[in-house]
Amino acid sequence: MIKIANSCLTLHLSQQRHKQILQLSYQTKKMKNVLIIGSTGQIGSELTMKLRSIYGSNNVIAGYIPGAEPKGELAESGPAEIVDITNAQQIADAVEKYKIDTIYNLAALLSAVAESKPLLAWKIGIGGLMNVLEVAREKHCAVFTPSSIGSFGPNAPKDGTPQDTIQQPKTMYGVTKVTGELLSNYYFTKFGVDTRSVRFPGLISYVTPPGGGTTDYAVDIYYAAVQGKPFSCPVKEGTFMDMMYMPDALRAAIEIMEANPDRLIHRNSFNIASMSFDPVIIYNKIKEYVPDFVMNYELDPLRQAIADSWPNSLDDTCARLEWDWKPEYDLDAMTRDMLEKLRIKFGIK
Ligand code: AKB
Hints:
By secondary structure, the chain is α/β, with parallel strands linked by helices. Helix content is 45%, strand content 13%. It has two domains: 14-201 and 246-271, Rossmann fold (3-Layer(aba) Sandwich), CATH 3.40.50; 204-242 and 275-346, UDP-galactose 4-epimerase, domain 1.
């Protein structure tokens, strides 16, 4: 049992003993056969390619659902398999067929969509996670399941939200994320399943657009800027949220799974952070490079309410101490790269 305390150093003895027993198998184990569930989504499409470049194309299996098939280099660069997270047998079959030792579980509905489809959000987020954890328990796989800044609610400290604090989210998305964290920790302490994860901020990328998140505006704004369109912002000035550039997020997902388990006091899930801004700050930053860019506001009450219930910024000290987490991109570096890559994508000089 872990004592709930705002400290990275509180660890109950029974968990320490458990870690020692697991240590031997970790030391001899090398992550090499990976199944990505949700490989064609915003994170999956890039993480699959990155993992293939590290572990070899044939060792990283792109799991997808019909209607969301891998395309382009994702389809051409390695094996793919239909793996619907709500179908435990499909997960078990893929794990068996490819001798999988690590599962990246990226299937989820994002926050705004989850509010309109709460039952489906639970079915995918928690029913699906239970399927993954059970298969992982039986077949001895490690599991990464992302959590989110959305796992916190309005009762959590707003600024520098600590690693261990009251969470109490108000959204269905957050409810599934906290439940997922607890279940993942339970499977670790009870069954020794090597579960690890991070609480992702809003993720910004030029490759695959997000869908149905509260932080999506911070991606859409770049698309508008490079295409010379005015941008209608769905959240108001002063709405601060943590954000992160995708290359840092991918590195976090890989580094936490490769971290030395001896050093891990926490597991599910680590706060990670790199930048926090509101719409005015990102708009002004883009304007430095696109001087004619225009932004106005067209507030979305649902996204505004969700954003208002989330922290302004997280404290990621524990991730830095326990597995040397360190972001590389700040807002300026991200903005320069996003604008450059999107201009190439759209063939704009
Ligand atoms: C969302 O906005 O729903 C996600 C998240 C912060 O988890 N991007």
